[in-house]
Amino acid sequence: MTEQQWVTVLGASGSIGQSTLDVIARNSERYKVYALTANTQLEKLLEQCLIHQPVYAVMRDEDSAERLRQRLKAQGSDIKVLGGEEALCQVAAAPQVDAVMAAIVGAAGLPPTLAAVKEGKRVLLANKEALVMAGRLFMDAVKIHKAVLLPIDSEHNAIYQCMPVDYSRGLANVGVRKILLTASGGPFRRTPLTELAAVTPEQACAHPNWSMGRKISVDSATMMNKGLELVEACWLFDARPEQVEVVIHPQSIIHSMVEYLDGSVLAQLGNPDMRTPIAYGLAWPERIDSGVSSLDIIATARLDFEAPDLQRFPCLRLASEAISAGGTAMVTLNAANEVAVEAFLQRQLGFTQIADVVEGVLSQATNTEPCDLAVVEKADQDARVIAQEIIAQQTVNT
Ligand code: NAD
Ligand code: MG
After folding, report:
1. Burial level of 251, CB count in 10 A (0-12/13-18/19+)?
2. What is the C-alpha to C-alpha distance for residues 154 and 133, in angstroms, rounded to an integer?
3. How does 209-240 read in b/e, with b if 16+ C-beta sit within 10 Å?
4. What is the pLDDT of residue 1?
């Protein structure tokens, strides 16, 4: 029997975090929880602590950490509770930890994810924003510290499964012609364009195929998610943007494909349930039970494909432009999008204004070379300030 592995789950209270704990619980002879973390979701983290009995529980919000400490103490628990950003990095980098699930949403996930990479951990990367922001620095750190990076984003996990094992020799050297990155097209693929401006957060978060956190659900609805994933694919597989083709596939049964020089196209299929890529990442190169039901290919019956409509989804165009611009443009795009999506969720901004804000910030921000993390962090902060200014003006105008 393989030795039990210690796992830290960053962002345990979220959608990916909960699915991860479900897979871990099904495979408790292989995995035990070292740390669970959350931002402010006290009740959820408390419940998870009592079930999974981690060594540490970390809440980024210090007040929430204090309340969790008291609640656990009242239950007679000896789980150690820490608060703050530094503690997130500590439990990601601790010597006992074998694997880290990086499932914090947004730029906030970068420091602890990078801390795990720098300790050479097995890193299960759901937090795409971290890779989009830090790109080269992130991938260099993976190589230098010999971290094992396993993509959890369903598309990238599918691509990883369809790639030859030695793909790091370069796509051309291993006979790969291109990557086909599939997208569901989100809830508004067919909505008349004139109705998009009035879309509510509830409508945007009601994804037809996947149940996800609110930020990524909005990103899926604007297709900014696919823009971020395009960048993610380029970094993970050392691909040029023109080697990655975005294909709309509304059923979300094929999770992405790899085309080879000889014309072969390999696809990974399965029910749309994140426990499949999570189980893959935890056990690789072995396979474990994920709890996902068997794909009923007969009931699925048909798989459709179409090209994305860049007029309907300007965020996808903006992401492509930011990739071409290079430098810190992707940091700017990501930060502006995070601020705009939050404003939309708070009903301070219309749905179609998300792209307007991102475009405005991209045109105003200075593009520099992301030579170190300080530059990345400054570009991130600058973009947030500009985005807030633009949003304040837009709200007045509406
Ligand atoms: P979620 O909103 O459900 O959960 C986010 C988690 O991050 C929560 O535990 C929350 O407490 C924590 N968090 C939020 N802000 C934080 C902060 N400032 N500091 C520390 N922790 C913070 O999100 P999710 O849907 O689970 O997505 C998590 C990540 O995985 C995102 O980057 C998303 O793009 C990616 N992802 C998710 C899915 C999915 O199906 N949900 C699929 C692919 C990729
Ligand atoms: Mg995805």
Report:
1. middle
2. 19
3. bbebbbbbbbbbbbbbbbbbbbbbbbbbbebe
4. 55
pTM: 0.97
Q: Does residue 373 form part of some domain?
A: yes
CA distances for 286 relative to 163, 266, 276, 283, angstroms = 16, 20, 13, 5
Does residue 15's CB lie within 6 angstroms of at least one atom of ligand 1?
A: yes
**Has residue 296 been placed in a domain?**
no
CA of 212 to the centre of ligand 2 (A): 10
Phi and psi, residue 198, nearest 5°: -95, 5
Number of helices (H), then strands (E), belonging to the chain: the values are 16, 11
Residue 132: which of 159, 163, 109, 115 has the closest Cα? 109
Among 319, 395, 397, which residue's Cα sits nearest to residue 358? Answer: 319
Is 160 domain-assigned? no
> Tell me, what's the pLDDT at 397?
47
Q: Is residue 16 part of a domain?
A: yes
For ligand 1, atom 2, name the residue with the nearest CA.
213
From CA 161, how far away is CA 215, in angstroms rounded?
Answer: 27
Nearest alpha carbon, ligand 1 atom 6:
11
Domain limit, last residue, from 151, 169, 192: 151
The last residue of a domain, from among 121, 151, 181 = 151
383 burial via Cβ count (<10 Å: 0-12, 13-18, 19+): buried
Q: How far apart are CA 146 and CA 137, in angstroms?
A: 14
Predicted pLDDT at 395:
65
Q: Which atom of ligand 1 lies at the shortest distance from residue 212's CA?
A: 41
Q: How many domains does the chain have?
A: 2
Which pair of structure tokens corresponds to residue 82?
Answer: 């820490």
Residue with tokens 């939309």: 344
Which parts of the chain sit beneath pLDDT 50? 396-398
| Residue 110 near ligand 1, beta carbon < 6 Å | no
Which protein residue's CA is at the shortest distance from atom 42 of ligand 1?
Answer: 153
Q: How would you list the strands of the sheet with 31-38, edge to edge?
A: 80-83, 56-59, 31-38, 5-10, 99-102, 122-125, 148-151
C-beta 104 within 6 A of ligand 1:
yes
Measured CA to CA, the distance from residue 395 to residue 349 in angstroms comes to 7
